[in-house]
UniProtKB/TrEMBL annotation:
Phylogenetic lineage: Bacteria, Pseudomonadati, Pseudomonadota, Gammaproteobacteria, Oceanospirillales
Function: The alpha subunit is responsible for the aldol cleavage of indoleglycerol phosphate to indole and glyceraldehyde 3-phosphate.
PROSITE patterns: TRP_SYNTHASE_ALPHA
Enzyme Commission number, as recorded: 4.2.1.20
SUPFAM superfamilies: Ribulose-phoshate binding barrel (SSF51366)
Protein name stated in the entry: Tryptophan synthase alpha chain
NCBIfam families with a match to the protein in the record: trpA
Keyword Ribosomal protein applies: no
UniProt GO MF annotations: tryptophan synthase activity
Pathway field: Amino-acid biosynthesis; L-tryptophan biosynthesis; L-tryptophan from chorismate: step 5/5
Species: Halomonas koreensis
Length: 267
């Protein structure tokens, strides 16, 4: 069983919600990323989304755009990120890792080469923001053959027909975007999220995880009441940016933010 599927099965048996943090690989410098990943696990992360730095992250707001810029200034490439996962796996063989980014770096590496290396270093899933489900038949089988889950986004504006296509191709979990717009926007509204998740539950058995607008323990707990998991990115990336000049302080800052969310979700 894929580590993602196993983790969600365990959480369901425990009656708990998944906590999924996102950070950008290589931000503020590549030598710190693996340490940050371990800090997230200590704070209660169930799955880690590791962002692939990209020059034009169209779905991301200013916070994550700047994180990509900081990483790219160090020349961080997809191949470097895969080596970070390899290093992470030397100490952690259990926490699922999902690579989140855009199609261009994967195409430059070559789909099969990427999938082979991702499997070999211990990646569990791939979420490519600009890969439409209509083209998933090109990539999905290559990933599936290697035990890698294809994870997709669903937005508030997604039609029911398109949502059905996404659900048919999705694996691991479904990432529901709580807000119209980009990351780092307003707080998510639990009632609105619940209204949109209801029809999705009729179309898929995949865990429904909600991102965009999760800022603190209170917002995590509110969304956790209606979703199977919460995804937090900008709130963590902000802490990295605030401490970019003293990276030794970042693990504790990440643990403080994520730890509050873990306690709120479990409560």
């Amino acid at each position: 069983m894929n580590r993602i599927d196993q983790r969600f099965a365990d959480l369901k048996a425990q009656g708990r919600r998944a906590l999924i943090p996102y950070i950008t690989a290589g931000d503020p410098a590549p030598e710190h990323t693996v340490g940050f990943m371990h800090a997230l696990v200590r704070a209660g992360a169930d799955v880690i989304e590791l962002g692939v730095p990209f020059s034009d992250p169209m779905a991301d707001g200013p916070v994550i755009q700047k994180a990509c810029e900081r990483a790219l200034r160090h020349g961080v490439r997809l191949a470097d990120l895969l080596e970070m996962v390899r290093e992470f796996r030397r100490e952690d063989a259990e926490t699922p890792v999902v690579l989140m980014g855009y199609l261009n770096p994967v195409e430059r590496m070559g789909l099969e080469a990427f999938a082979d290396q991702a499997r070999e270093v211990g990646v569990d899933g791939v979420l490519l923001v600009d890969l439409p489900p209509e083209e998933a038949d090109l990539m999905g089988p290559v990933l599936k053959e290697r035990g890698l889950a294809s994870i997709f986004l669903v937005a508030p504006t997604t039609s029911s027909a398109r949502a059905a296509t996404i659900c048919a191709h999705g694996e691991g979990y479904l990432y529901y975007v709580a807000l119209k717009g980009v990351t780092g926007g307003a707080a998510a509204d639990a009632a609105d999220v619940a209204e949109h998740l209801a029809p999705l539950r009729e179309q898929t058995d995949l865990p429904l995880c909600v991102g965009f607008g999760i800022r603190d323990g209170a917002s995590a707990a509110e969304i956790g009441r209606v979703a199977d998991g919460v995804i937090v990115g900008s709130a963590l990336v902000n802490r990295i940016a605030d401490n970019a000049e003293r990276p030794e302080a970042i693990p504790a800052a990440l643990e403080a933010v994520l730890g509050e969310m873990r306690q709120a979700l479990d409560a």
